[in-house]
UniProtKB/TrEMBL annotation, chains A, B:
This is Uroporphyrinogen decarboxylase. It comes from Micrococcus flavus. Belongs to the uroporphyrinogen decarboxylase family. The keyword Transport does not apply. Substrate binds at residues 52-56, 101, 176, 231, 360. It catalyses: uroporphyrinogen III + 4 H(+) = coproporphyrinogen III + 4 CO2. Homodimer. GO terms for biological process: protoporphyrinogen IX biosynthetic process.
Amino acid sequence: MSAQTTSSDAPTGLPAEHPLRTADPARSTARSPLVRALRGQEPTRNPVWFMRQAGRSLPEYRRVREGIGMLESCLQPELAAEITLQPVRRHDVDAAIFFSDIVVPLRLAGVDVEIQPGVGPVLGRPVRTAEDAAALPPLEDDALDVIREAVTRTVAELGDRPLIGFAGAPFTLAAYMVEGRPSRDHMGPRRMMHGDPDTWAALAGWAATVSGQFLRAQLEAGASAAQLFDSWAGSLSAEDYLRHVQPHSATAFAHVADIAGPAVADGAPLLHFGTGTGEFLHHLRDAGATAVGVDHRITLAEAHRRLAAHPGPDGRGAVPLQGNIDPALLGAPWPVLEAHVRDVVASGTAAPGHVVNLAHGVPPETDPEVLTRVVELIHALPVGEGGQA
Amino acid sequence: MSAQTTSSDAPTGLPAEHPLRTADPARSTARSPLVRALRGQEPTRNPVWFMRQAGRSLPEYRRVREGIGMLESCLQPELAAEITLQPVRRHDVDAAIFFSDIVVPLRLAGVDVEIQPGVGPVLGRPVRTAEDAAALPPLEDDALDVIREAVTRTVAELGDRPLIGFAGAPFTLAAYMVEGRPSRDHMGPRRMMHGDPDTWAALAGWAATVSGQFLRAQLEAGASAAQLFDSWAGSLSAEDYLRHVQPHSATAFAHVADIAGPAVADGAPLLHFGTGTGEFLHHLRDAGATAVGVDHRITLAEAHRRLAAHPGPDGRGAVPLQGNIDPALLGAPWPVLEAHVRDVVASGTAAPGHVVNLAHGVPPETDPEVLTRVVELIHALPVGEGGQA
């Protein structure tokens, strides 16, 4: 645990040369549309990026990944940086998202995990008992150097365009760790949190720690924002999320709370996203997020209404939103897609800030030219007026 | 289409000897707790059954299925009846659910489909184009004789305990047909409904017809209620459900609207269930359902509140509910599970009728003795008072 304690206690803010703090305009991300929108300030254009923008939809990605395993590609700094930059070059998106995988911190901690093509993360030894959870190894701080190097390389290329850091949330990480592989219902972790709450707390607590360390390494090395992905949180009731999951996601965010999040005005904004979480967006916010991501199931205006109606313990109700172009429409005829994108931008004007994104990741079969055209459309729409202009 | 037209137009109500209409008290299901609760009448005890109660959790099921494929077992009337009856004998549940699979009507229509163990339904030729949809074969009425025979055998054994008929809803059927296999996000059908709405309408319309025929065959042969399973509807926004899916589910229900559903006071109650559909339970009701199933994501009291707040075109707001014991708690220590079951029964008293069920299917690894104990508990609780008594 020493590495983690050092990492959490030592820093007293982002380094002076961090892109959010630097005086060099060519490297400063503080005035970028993404950071401004996430701080509730008016951006110069509608910021947009896409979850999974770095990935299989791009031929240049498939080319550089040839013959290299998923986790291996995440752990080669030069390659990870290249892949992270590809969609920025191609689509002119307003941010890069660090190319990684939610199980990278597990691998760096020494957990036996691999990504099987066509399957997803598979663990050599699922975590099912108190003994399994107790045996999980700590993530040593120097194991994160490979991540820091990739981030440093990426940020140097990005200039004044922000890099968004990336981590899986404790529930989603723990879901893979209990099941040992992807599952549909996530019955394993849901069963454990009710039937064996102590083991659940140990496992989710471990996942929160490595997730927080992973976020911190990226933010310190130059990421200007970070997103916690709780992909499977939508399998939970609001009550179960609040009781058994939110405290652990809050722990992950707490690892960076001195340099990021809603309590640090000039820190890095923190995004929190899960699919099917429309019933408890306010719980995602209250885990310590600056902004909340929304999937395709409800409109941004409705998400805004719900957040405003449920202020948190810190008094925050409405917060900036991210989302929510339905990926299912990326293959529709352009007029259908265009009308949908305009609706999304218009709906987002209800919130105190809006970063346009998909409602979920880019499907691998997406035509990248469609994404480029979507970015052009969003950038051409007047800020704060959306599609109704 | 002739078989379907004949089947839809000819009958003028359930046969006189149908269990819902017979004067023979040993065979009449009209006074059963399940039917009474679904008609909003006070039952003699809290009715309970479990989705997937006939299946892999039972050793007697695994024994009779040995060496027999899933679809083959559904199409052997004697075996299907035996499997349907097993959980009634073991657990004393208040209804049998007809043992079948949502793709059985596809197979009966001649579509190349099989159930691969560990995978699920796999189609030889996915339906992706207008030509694919146009080439779908009609389901001939006499192909359903094997279903009628299985239902007749089952009902003869059940006596005054009702059999619930079973069909997959058009969206869930179409999801398998477009993807060709199970998928997580159901992007295929969601993409089609936006990008190629005519093909979607043709495919979903075909699925609605075979689904309706399948329901009708079971109801006419003696089922006292029927449930439409829209397992994957929760992947849709309420808006997409209403526009692209509900009309087709309504078509399926319309096939039996003269003998079942809310407009036929002495007909068979119709249940409508999907997971993750808390945002649009009223749309499930308004497809033509007598009662709505609720998953574990919201309480029954909240489901009731939402339905009451959104009355449909026919003026119905609150309707009887079914659900919603979280399957994830079946493996929890008994005091935890017992408290949860009491909460569910108490929460259900808000609705004008309540059939206790799981929030989703019985997980295969469930200890059947736990299910028996849950049934005993529910039957011991005072009707209409729930766990607070």
